[in-house]
Amino acid sequence: MRHGEVHNPDGILYGRLPDYHLSELGRQMADRVAEHLAGRDVTHVVSSPLERAQETATPIAKAHGLDLSTDERLIEAGNVFQGKTFGVGDGALKRPANWKHLVNPFKPSWGEPYLEQVVRMMGALDAAKDAARGHEAVCVSHQLPIWIVRSFVEKRRLWHDPRRRQCTLASLTSFTYRGDKIVSVGYSEPARDLVPAHLLAGAKPVKGKDKAFGA
Under the phi-then-psi rule, with left for phi > 0, alpha for psi from -120 to 50, and beta for the rest, what region is 208? Predict the structure, then answer.
C-alpha cells in the first residue's frame, strides 16, 4: 500500500526527511483502506519507518488486532533533491547545479539505483510473505519503490515516466504468491474518491500542484 496524502503546504520533495505527517485527508484515506481490508485475512502489517507510512498502517493493524511492525527496506527511495522543491514549472531543470544529477535517467543518477530498490523491496515482500504464510500481509511503503518492484515482477523496464506510475495515494498493489513464487499482481484504489484529481494515476501534471508527486 502507498501511504495517504501528506501535509506539505510548501511543496517540498520530502523523501526520507522526518516529521512529514498525514494530512487530515490522508488520515481519511488510511481509515478508508482499513475499512476496505477489515474483512480480509490479514495476519501481518508492516510499514516503512517514515511517519506518513506508519500513520497509514496504524488503522489497518488496529482493525485486525495486530501490532505494527517496521521494515527499513520499505523506506522511500533516496533522492539528491530531498528537501527542495522540484516540480513542473518551478525552473529546477534550468538550474546548472542540478544538471550533474540528471545525466542518467536509466540508473537513475539523481537517487537510489532502481536495482537496489528492487533488491530491498523483494526482500521486504518475502519477509512479509513468510510472516503471514497462508494468510495475507499488508506492507505500507512509498510510490517509487512500489512501482519499481511491480515493474520488475511484471518484467517491464525500470526507467520510466514518473507521470505514468499506476500508484495513486492509498492505493493497493497486490502480489499473490503460490509457495514462494509470485504468480499474479493486482491493483486497486479503495480511496480513489478522496484523491485530488491531479494526483490520480496517469493524471496530467498541474503547475504548482505536483511538486511532491513522487513521494
Answer: left
In whole angstroms, how far apart are CA 180 and each of 58, 128, 141, 145, 169? Answer: 27, 11, 21, 21, 28
> In whole angstroms, what is the distance from residue 185 CA to residue 176 CA?
6
Which SS3 state, helix, strand or coil, does residue 23 take?
coil
148: number of Cβ within 10 Å: 25
pTM higher than 0.85 for the full model? yes
Whose cell is 480480509? That residue is: 40
Please answer whether residues 85 and 10 qualify as being in contact, where contact means their C-beta atoms are separated by less than 8 angstroms.
Answer: yes
Find, among 120, 108, 123, the residue nearest to 159 by Cα: 108
Q: What pLDDT shows up at residue 62?
A: 98
Q: Is the pLDDT of residue 214 over 80?
A: no
Closest CA to 75 of 132, 12, 140: 140
Strands 42-47 and 68-70, by their bridges, are parallel
Residues in the chain: 215
Q: Identify whether the C-beta of residue 200 lies closer than 8 Å to the C-beta of residue 163.
A: no
CA distance 50 to 3: 10
Residue with cell 518475502: 126
Q: Give yes or no for residue 91 having a pLDDT over 70.
A: no
How far, rounded to the nearest angstrom, does the alpha carbon of residue 115 sit from its chain's CA centroid?
16
Task: Check: CB of residue 26 under 8 Å from CB of residue 52.
Answer: yes
